[in-house]
Each structure stands twice: as structure tokens, then as C-alpha cells.
């Protein structure tokens, strides 16, 4: 006779570590409240087409994705966007400029997770407010005629904002994630995939191959309901070299990446991130990296189709607190606007010289 006690039917088997589940606005309602205007739709459509043409070599301009490491102050971000939009228009013959507008921050352990997750910067996690704030900022920047780029971290977030995003990225920590590769396979914009944090480019190349294929996976629809998503695949992806244990923006690294892409049957689209492992997260060093790339582009190097820079109004970084400097990053240190302005001019001059 068994002595094993019968299970207690009133003992919960799941949600034992869930404190609460709060209501979340649906993507459809947010898009209804903050619709995409024809003007913004034009910016997004033209921007996606232009970025794809640059990556494919059908446009000899240089793709430049530049902006704050993360957006924490929408007012300062729109100030930056106005300056960048004016400069991008001046240099439009040489540069295809996209503003880096990141709202989600992957953390190695813990920390502020970005404007969508915690818009009050105070641990209140008002995600509904964060989603509204993020979407409105993307609409306002795009209304200036300036395309925007976002890193996609949470697989649900794109339902709220992806229709107004021109260029997307998948970070080094998620480049090997099947969830994110599936997500990219259904996205309507070009997407860059970074090399792994240790510098391995195979993760990015495998990610491109996976994202180009059709997938079927579980997700949410515009009403926020669970559904089965079937994608056709995204062929408009590229590798982002962001360094790792050592920098990987040298001409030999770029050439080796292009060779590996061709060997995998993929287009040799290579974008260099001047920050992160390529600068040792030193915002001053970023300018050195960009300067070296500009010299190579001016000399006729064609392997680099674009680059990324972390930049805000003020140089450096700061901790969250009551006396923060307006326009200074609260995550990775960024270059100042004045330095960025000079570097954009340097890159445009390099493109002109390389055409000769």
C-alpha cells in the first residue's frame, strides 16, 4: 500500500514567484492613439529604401547610424534630432544618416533597462507610459525627415513601434538567440546583427542566415493576443563589427568578414560600430576610430558600407540622480554634439575623396 500523500489541490503550481500581472495597452490601441502620418510614412519608406540601397552598393553613400547610447530624456533627444536632421540634409549627397534612438538596454546583470521599461528613471516601471513616450518621440523625429533606428530586445516591443522604425539592430548579447533571429525574419526594415561579445563574427553570420529563412513561432498580434506568426524571411540584414576581446575594425578584419559572408552565400554587407569593443567604451577613442575609417574610405576602401557612433549633446556619461546634466548619457559614454558634427563632415569629405 502506497504511503505517498495525495497532492494538495489548493496548492498553486505556477506563478509562485510572480508578485502581480498588470494591464498593458495593446499595440493596436497605441497605434490608434499615436498614428503614423503620411509625412512620417514617407520618411520611413524612403529611409528603408535608401539604407537598403547603400548596403547593397546601389548607392555609394555611407550609412551612418548615430545618436545616444540610450534615450532617457525625450526633450534632449528631440533637440539632438533637430541638429542632426539639419546636418544630415547638408551632407545628404555623401551620407545616409539614421538617428540611433534606443529605448531598450540589455544589462549584464541589473540596471536601468531603458525608457520603455522605466520612463520615470525611478524604478516605477510605468511601461504603458514608456511605450507612449517612445512612440511619440519616434514620430516626432521622423516628422523632421530624419529616419530612426532601434535595437530590438523584447520580442513584443516591435508590435508597438516597428512601423515607424527605418533600421533595426540585434545586439551582441542576443545575436545567438533563436527568438531574435525569428523576430528579424518578419521585420519590415533592414536589420544589423552584431558580432558576439567575445568578438566572434560567426554568431552574426549565422543570425543573418537564420533571419533570411521563413519561420513559424509564437507571438502576439496587434490586439496583444497570443498567435502563431509565420514569416517569409528578411534578406536585408548585415553584420555589425563592434569588437570584442580586441577591436575588429581594421581593414583585415573587414575583409575577413566579407570573405566569410560570401562563403556563407550572403551579401558582403559590413557596418562598423565605432563604440563598444572597438573603442574600449572610451568615447574619446570613438573619434579616433572614426578618423581611421575615414582615412581608409578616402583612400578608396569599399568594404565598410556604414558605421555607428554613440553621441549626445554633452560628452561622457552620468549616473541617474537629481542633478543630471541635460543631454548627457546615463548608460555608455557618448561623444558630444560638437565632436559628432565635425566627424560627420570628415566622413562626408572622405566619401567625396573616395569617389575620385
Biggest sheet strand line-up? 1-2-3-4-5-8-9-10
Query: Helical stretch count?
Result: 10
Which CATH class is shown? Answer: Alpha Beta
Head-to-tail CA distance between termini = 91 Å
- Gross morphology is globular
Low-confidence stretches: none
- Mean pLDDT over the residues: 95
Going by CATH, the homologous superfamily would be Aldolase class I
Percent strand equals: 5-15%
Largest sheet, strands/sense/barrel: 8 strands, parallel, barrel
The sequence of SSEs as H and E is HHEHEHEHEHEHEEEHEHEH
Structure summary, number of beta strands: 10
Helix content: 25-40%
Structural classification: alpha/beta
CATH architectural arrangement: Alpha-Beta Barrel
Compute the CA-based radius of gyration.
21 Å
Query: The CATH topology is what?
Result: TIM Barrel
* Count of folded domains: 1
Main attributes of the structure:
356 residues, eight-stranded parallel β-barrel, aromatic amino acid biosynthesis, 37% helix, TIM Barrel, globular, alpha/beta, single chain, Aldolase_TIM
Layout of helices and strands:
Layout lengths: L26 H7 L4 H19 L5 E6 L6 H17 L4 E6 L26 H17 L4 E4 L6 H4 L5 E4 L7 H8 L5 E4 L7 H10 L4 E5 L5 E5 L6 E5 L9 H13 L6 E4 L9 H16 L7 E5 L26 H19 L1
Parallel strand pairs: 1-2, 1-10, 2-3, 3-4, 4-5, 5-8, 8-9, 9-10
Antiparallel strand pairs: 6-7
Question: If you had to describe this structure to a student in words, what would you say it looks like?
Answer:
The structure is a single chain. With 356 residues, the protein is α/β, with parallel strands linked by helices. The protein has one domain (27-53, 62-355): Alpha-Beta Barrel (TIM Barrel), CATH 3.20.20. The chain is 37% helix and 13% strand. It contains ten helices and ten strands. It has helices at 27-33, 38-56, 74-90, 127-143, 158-161, 178-185, 202-211, 251-263, 283-298, 337-355, and strands at residues 62-67, 95-100, 148-151, 167-170, 191-194, 216-220, 226-230, 237-241, 270-273, 306-310. Strands 1-2-3-4-5-8-9-10 form an eight-stranded parallel barrel, surrounded by seven helices. The protein has a two-stranded antiparallel sheet with strand order 6-7. α3 (74-90) links the parallel β1 and β2. The longest helix has 19 residues, at 38-56. It is globular and about 85 Å long.
Amino acid at each position: 500500500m502506497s504511503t505517498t500523500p495525495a497532492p494538495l489541490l489548493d496548492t498553486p503550481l505556477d506563478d509562485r514567484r510572480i508578485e502581480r500581472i498588470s494591464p498593458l495597452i495593446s499595440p493596436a490601441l497605441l497605434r490608434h492613439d499615436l498614428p503614423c502620418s503620411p509625412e512620417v510614412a514617407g520618411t520611413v519608406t524612403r529611409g528603408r529604401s535608401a539604407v537598403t540601397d547603400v548596403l547593397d552598393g546601389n548607392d555609394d553613400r555611407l550609412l551612418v547610424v548615430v545618436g545616444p547610447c540610450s534615450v532617457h530624456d525625450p526633450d534632449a533627444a528631440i533637440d539632438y534630432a533637430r541638429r542632426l536632421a539639419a546636418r544630415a540634409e547638408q551632407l545628404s549627397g555623401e551620407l545616409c544618416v539614421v538617428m540611433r534612438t534606443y529605448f531598450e538596454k540589455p544589462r549584464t546583470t541589473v540596471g536601468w533597462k531603458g525608457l520603455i521599461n522605466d520612463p520615470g528613471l525611478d524604478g516605477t516601471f510605468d511601461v504603458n507610459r514608456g511605450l507612449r513616450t517612445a512612440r511619440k518621440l519616434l514620430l516626432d523625429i521622423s516628422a523632421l525627415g530624419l529616419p530612426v533606428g532601434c535595437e530590438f530586445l523584447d520580442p513584443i516591443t516591435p508590435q508597438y513601434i516597428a512601423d515607424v522604425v527605418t533600421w533595426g539592430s540585434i545586439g551582441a548579447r542576443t545575436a545567438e538567440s533563436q527568438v531574435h533571429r525569428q523576430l528579424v525574419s518578419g521585420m519590415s526594415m533592414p536589420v544589423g546583427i552584431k558580432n558576439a561579445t567575445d568578438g566572434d563574427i560567426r554568431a552574426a553570420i549565422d543570425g543573418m542566415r537564420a533571419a533570411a529563412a521563413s519561420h513559424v513561432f509564437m507571438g502576439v498580434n496587434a490586439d496583444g493576443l497570443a498567435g502563431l506568426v509565420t514569416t517569409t524571411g528578411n534578406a536585408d540584414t548585415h553584420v555589425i563589427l563592434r569588437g570584442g576581446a580586441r577591436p575588429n575594425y581594421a581593414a583585415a578584419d573587414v575583409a575577413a568578414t566579407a570573405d566569410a559572408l560570401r562563403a556563407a552565400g550572403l551579401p558582403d554587407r559590413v557596418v562598423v560600430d565605432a563604440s563598444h569593443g572597438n573603442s574600449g567604451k572610451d568615447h574619446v577613442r570613438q573619434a579616433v576610430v572614426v578618423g581611421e575609417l575615414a582615412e581608409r574610405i578616402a583612400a578608396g576602401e569599399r568594404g565598410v558600407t556604414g558605421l555607428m557612433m554613440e553621441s549626445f549633446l554633452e560628452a561622457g556619461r552620468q549616473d541617474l540622480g537629481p542633478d543630471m546634466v541635460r543631454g548627457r548619457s546615463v548608460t555608455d559614454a557618448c561623444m558630444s554634439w560638437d565632436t559628432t558634427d565635425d566627424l560627420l563632415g570628415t566622413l562626408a569629405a572622405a566619401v567625396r575623396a573616395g569617389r575620385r
